[in-house]
Write a structure and sequence with these properties.
Layout lengths: L1 H10 L1 H12 L2 E4 L9 E4 L2 H9 L5 E2 L8 H4 L9 H11 L6 H4 L2 H11 L8 E3 H17 L6 H17 L2 H8 L12 H25 L8 H7 L10 H15 L1 H15 L2 H12 L7 H5 L2 H13 L9 E3 L3 E3 L2 E3 L4 E4 L1 H4 L16 H4 L20 H18 L1 E4 L7 E4 L2 E4 L4 E5 L2
Parallel strand pairs: 2-8
Antiparallel strand pairs: 1-2, 3-5, 4-12, 5-8, 6-7, 9-12, 10-11
Length: about 450
């Protein structure tokens, strides 16, 4: 039963959650972490999510519940840190993604978007599920890694594109869920092939870090430079290994996820003519001198992004957390060794929170403010996504830049299905769109 449930969850997680919520309600327990799996309990009510996120870190073990990602992110990733180590890394990582720092990235995001779409012509068919990853990867390479176009940039872009595309395929991603498959039998074996590709990427990343170390006096405004110059409370810098693991984590967590939401955005907007019309009118009210900051504050653009992430959140669940001590959630006690999982997907589709929860209604975010336990597309609490503000900022600018330049139309107006692609859920069919005359 454990294996069957695991395969069901991997193959079609939205259907899996819908079926179990319908059958069991707000709380249900499964065994989906492989052989000898501990009980994994999913929650979706605001009270349960509030209680879950409020459990003190000292009562939880995050490493055991997230171990499947270690070969991808690296052992020094913030994902696997706990206690003081987690607080230290979060303190170092947060500043580059918030406040005034965001403003310095706006022009780069818009310019990359314009460059990728420069050759779009009337009559072209564009697959959003191909274009969006290209844009978001280049943004990560330039804004996060701080690498300018050139030989190293192109090598990294090529290697990362190929690896990330493979990781999103079910057969390849299954390597990370089933440790017995992780056998290095040479470069022609699946795991050996992954390790070789990871090594090639790491060499380029470490070369970039080493080069930056030698010009420490002239670091830029990109996120890698800011992390390299950051100090913790003891005055210590991040090690090269820490920097590498944070960069790879930011890449893996911010590349496919953001591009996936963007694909949903283009589909949802263009399959709801009244939404598209309102959004285009708002964008057309701007003039050429409008700053990127003004664009990111547009109310209807913000509401459209928020509603898309409600229906199709960046991640389906919050970071799993294993209990060390007995804990209580929503009046129910759970023993040590239980894995607690707040389910974002189900929380966003509760009828008691959202009227007509299956309908795409951006206006709900203009008329009401939801609590962080009702609406949490990036997770919440002290393990929430550190790049959430950057991701929203990025997707708003990409969307506004393209819609301001092109008239697009869906090739096929048939409803799409949510399908798994790596760690994200994307619209089936790749969202093909035709460029129309403006």
């Amino acid at each position: 039963m454990t294996l069957i449930q695991t395969l069901q969850l991997i193959a079609n997680p939205t259907k899996f959650f819908d079926n179990h919520a319908k059958k069991y309600g707000d709380v249900f327990s499964l065994r989906v972490l492989g052989i000898n799996s501990p009980p994994v309990v999913f929650f979706s009510s605001p009270q349960a999510i509030n209680d879950c996120l409020a459990i003190p870190a000292k009562q939880l073990d995050f490493k055991k519940a997230t171990h499947v990602f270690k070969p991808l992110f690296g052992s020094d990733s913030i994902v696997f840190q706990e206690g003081k180590s987690h607080n230290r890394q979060r303190q170092l990582l947060m500043p580059p993604f918030h406040g005034d720092r965001l403003k310095s990235y706006g022009d780069t995001i818009c310019n990359i978007t314009k460059d990728v779409t420069r050759n779009w012509k009337t009559g072209n068919t564009i697959f959003m599920q191909q274009v969006m990853p290209d844009i978001t990867l280049q943004i990560i390479l330039q804004v996060v890694f701080g690498i300018n176009p050139g030989e190293r940039y192109e090598k990294l872009r090529k290697l990362l594109t190929a690896l990330l595309d493979d990781i999103t395929k079910p057969w390849y991603s299954s390597l990370f869920f089933f440790p017995p498959l992780q056998k290095d039998l040479g470069k022609w074996s699946p795991w050996g092939n992954y390790l070789k590709r990871r090594e090639e990427i790491d060499k380029l990343i470490y070369a970039e870090i080493s080069e930056r170390r030698t010009i420490n006096h002239n670091l830029g405004e990109d996120i890698l430079s800011l992390l390299m110059s950051a100090r913790d409370q003891s005055g210590e810098k991040m090690t090269d290994k820490e920097l590498r693991d944070q960069l790879v984590s930011l890449l893996l967590l911010g590349y496919e996820t953001t591009s996936g939401v963007l694909a949903w955005l283009f589909y949802m907007i263009h399959s709801h003519s009244e939404v598209k019309e309102k959004l285009i009118q708002e964008l057309q009210s701007l003039n050429k001198a409008t700053s990127v900051e003004t664009i990111t504050q547009l109310p209807y653009l913000s509401a459209v992004c928020a509603e898309t992430m409600r229906l199709h959140p960046i991640a389906l669940i919050c970071t799993p957390r294993m209990t060390i001590d007995k804990v209580e959630v929503a009046g129910e006690k759970f023993n040590s060794g239980t894995v607690l999982v707040p389910c974002i997907y189900l929380a966003h589709r509760r009828e008691t929170t959202y009227q007509q929860p299956d309908q795409f209604i951006p206006e709900r975010f203009l008329n009401q403010k939801f609590s962080p336990f009702e609406y949490l597309p990036f997770g919440g609490g002290y393990r929430g996504c550190i790049g959430s503000a950057f991701a929203v900022y990025e997707m708003k600018l990409i969307l506004a830049t393209i819609l301001s330049q092109f008239e697009l139309q869906l090739v096929d107006k048939k409803p799409v299905k949510p399908v798994r692609r790596g760690i994200t859920i994307v619209p089936s069919g790749g969202v093909p769109m035709i460029v129309k005359p403006q």
